[in-house]
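Researcher: I'd like a structural prediction for the single chain below. Treat it as a standalone chain; there are no partners to consider.
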Amino acid sequence: MSRTPALAFAFRSVWQGLARGARGFVSLFLRSLQVRVVLLTMVLTAVALFGVGSYMTQVIARGLFQSKLDSLSSQTNGYTGQLESLAADADLDEALGVQLRSMYSRSPTPLRAIILVPRDPAGAGEPIVVTDKRADTPEVAELPEEFLRTVADSPTGQQAYRSLSFTGDGSAPGVVVAQPVVVPGAGQFELYLVADLEEEQSILDFVTRAVGVAGVVLVVLVGAVGLLVSRLVVTPIRTGSEVARQIADGDLDRRMPVAGRDEISHLAESFNDMADTLQDQITRMERLSVLQRQFVSDVSHELRTPLTTIHIASDMLYESRDDFDETTRRSAELLRSQVDRFEALLGDLLEISRYDAGAAELVPHPHDLGEIVAGVVETVSVVADQAGTRIRVHAPATPVMAEADRVRVTRILRNLVVNAVEHGESRPIDVYLASNAEAAAVSVRDHGVGMSREAVEHVFDRFWRADPSRKRTLGGSGLGLAIALEDAHLHGGWLQAWGEPGEGSCFRLTIPRRHGQAISSSPLPLPPADAKRGQALVAGPTSSDGSVRIQTGSIPIVVESGPESADASADGAPRERTGHTGGDAEGSAPPGGADAVRPGAVRGDGGADDAD
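Model: Treating it as a single chain, here is the predicted structure.
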């Protein structure tokens, strides 16, 4: 009873081992060009040798059989002549027996038996048989009926033959030759000569073994040659791959070794020339980038002192504007506003220079993102009222907590809300908050002019605007979204954008709930759940939710292409939190609850949206 489970376990273990071995071999076959070349060379060589060997053995077998058959045929003709030349004798049966035994003993070809069978059994005696007494030698009656009918229908002087097998010697091959003969004074007979092909079979077996051994040796030699040849080709390829990987990792001084004057050497030289060119270009770009960042930083810092003086002078003029005439008063107000705008631009440049220099620092503390959103909405309320835009905040009843830098998150959200007001065409703006186990997210959805494909691809570029001629009521330096993206990266999070012409835009900020924690999905959908089904483009930072990294402008973003994300699950859908500008809030359910991000589909064309 206990042996069956043990055998089953042993069989399962052996099967699992074989399966692992097969998977390892397949993996090695797919990963190694050298293994594929050697293995395919050996297999094809073995197939070719098998075909050639089979053909050769068949040709040799036919030749040996035909040679044996010709010898027996000639011998049969001689024996029939001897029998036909016998003189009539009173004791003919004794004479025939003596003659057959004499022919058997003097036969140049080893015979199993000589049999003389009368054609008319009623008119003659019994068949005369001379044999070597082997048990497996067949009698005439044991031969196939078809062969016996052929011999019986054959005229005198015509031969018939048949191959057969002697089962007693391990199915040894043999052959039988028959010919009608007329014996004087005795009538018509059928002469049968039975011979084996043991000698011919031994020759054929020797040839087969020799071909097999030679084939195995040749396959091994061809495999060794294939290994050597493939090694000559694969080794430089592996070296080039390793050098290319090291160059990609930043070791720009690595080069391929060059030896000889063959094609591989020319390839190595071309690769090294390409690496030299790339290193030169990268060095020049790095030097130019350093100079550019240093220039921006130096100019920004140098402008601080004169700007402070100009700001003080403009403040004095602004405070005394009531003593001026209308034109001078208007100039003082314009000077004050432009100085403020210049100061904001200078602050953005300094912030960008800090990011470029790697000097930006994060000060994370636990915060309720709902409170930060409420503060941003309150700050932007005056501008939203002037634009006739209502801001609706949709948030869960419980706080959305995350470890974040309050100043930087506030700056991100203020920039997103201000852009939504600027481009929302006085239509309502929806701000959604949600969280899951690893991330917290805020998305700002407007229903204005939307963004074209080009706008979505370049929305995070520095100083880029989709429509420079568009009237701007809130100013802006053109660096807002670039700084916001850097702030999101500093948190280890994502800032992603979606837009469709005429359908509005949606920006989604996703940050980890704990500082330093990796995030793989966002609790809010993008494209938003209320977007029309179809094609869309989503841009943002590198993420692990199916994004593909690209480089546009000076800020790395990604483009996610694929089917539009499915509607968010209704479970855990956030409820609307009162937070609007002007009038009472209109309670409206959000277009979707928390859901993992799915890649957006390929882009749409049409109108454009500006973004700072």
